[in-house]
Amino acid sequence: MAVETALEFSKEELEYFRNMSRLKYELDEQDRKTRMERKLRRAQEKTLKKMRKEIQDEVRAEVREEVRTEVRTQEKHETAQKMKAYGEPIEKIIAFTGLSPEEIENL
Fold this sequence. Notes:
The chain has 4 helices and no strands. 2% of the residues are buried. It has one domain. Helix 2 packs antiparallel against helix 3 (90-97). By secondary structure, the chain is mostly helical.
């Protein structure tokens, strides 16, 4: 029966059905590619966001450490200045602060 029905279609109609089928396949393929591209883009964005956060966290940690180091150095300088003002010997200032003799003399 299907063969008899198929024989009733003209060549133009069969060509039309083939073209429509090919077009549907191409549209389905394009849709699949588009979905895959979106999925890939979301994964890339998620990865970039994670990388940005990791970099920001690293930078923050480095800045915190630099600030701590600067604060410690400033505290050592202040302690050395006070000790120097009280007339403490340079050897004692070096022992308490860990500063070099040149650093102490420049205060």
